[in-house]
Amino acid sequence: MVGVSSLEAVLDELLRKRSLREDLGRRCFERMNLSPEDAGVLAAVDCATLERAAAALRREVRARCHRGSGKLEELYPSAIAAWRAQHPDDRDLDQLFERFVASEAFAAHGHGPGPTDGLRLCIEESFFHFCEAESLGSAEERLSELLAATMKALLVSPAPAFAVPACVRRAPRGFFGLATRAGSPILFAATGGRFVTGALTPFLAALLGSEDHAAVAREHGVGPGELASSLEALAGLGLVKTFFPA
Fold it and tell me: What's the rounded Cα separation, in Å, for the pair 111 and 76?
């Protein structure tokens, strides 16, 4: 924290960070950067009540079903499995969610100063960045789980009030993203009111990643007829503009 912090901001951090709650219990206010007046107000806070509120926040984050797509532990099964393998004593995942709510990734979702464009990360992306920082699961699994979770969120919120992840691209009838699994491209899309996922050929993945379709066809040794049918199929899914063969 830089300069004098607001009491509201410090209370938010106290709910999220056990180390600050321990400071409060010892009446150590140095890291909180409060004015003397606000420090006096904070000194009157009941630590047991604050601890119960912090536990309630963790339970709420864990139990919440996000935009109908499910709980975070359902959206990120491989990351959760990796955590359980590393922390077999954390059966109820309280340690996991305590670390998550204390993280900068969680703060980017809805706590602390907001971004200049007014859009915060969705909690699905926040949890992805947390899992990245904690190295939970493989990079391929994390990206696949992020894309699946984000597409489900975008089906419910096609005009999102959150920042769309950088790995997600807009399509004529929705959104899509590409991941890799066992060396093969995997499509995740929210298009035409449907969640679509499945393996793609490298050629189709390259078509989605480029606006110069003819150059992609030449690079992959694909003739005009196959290119036309491929674009027609992608247009039928709403992933590229409607294709009109020459």
Answer: 22
Query: Tokens for 84?
Result: 């359980």
Give the span between the Cα atoms of 69 and 13, in whole angstroms.
Answer: 28
Give the span between the Cα atoms of 225 and 100, in whole angstroms: 51
- Kindly give the pairing relationship between strand 184-191 and strand 194-199: antiparallel
Residue 120, token pair as written in the block? 């915060």
Contact 241, 172 (CB under 8 A): yes
pLDDT, tens digit, for every residue of 92-122?
Answer: 999 999 999 999 999 988 755 444 456 889 8
What is the DSSP track for 184-237?
EEEEEEEETTEEEEEE--HHHHHHHT-S-HHHHHHHTT--HHHHHHHHHHHHHT
Tell me the two tokens of residue 180.
């890799």
Residue 129 CA to residue 47 CA, distance in Å, equals 30
Largest CA distance in the chain: 76
- For helices 123-134 and 94-101, what crossing angle results, to 10°? 110
- Pull the structure tokens for residue 219: 């690079």
Bridge partners for 185 per DSSP: 180
At 201, give phi and psi (nearest 5°).
-75, 155
**Phi, psi (degrees; rounded to nearest 5) at 35:** -65, 160
Query: Can you give the pTM of this predicted structure?
Result: 0.85
d(CA 113, CA 76): 27
Torsion of CA 90, 95, 97, 101, to 10 degrees: -170
Q: Which two tokens stand for residue 204?
A: 């189709």
pLDDT above 90: percentage of residues in the chain = 62
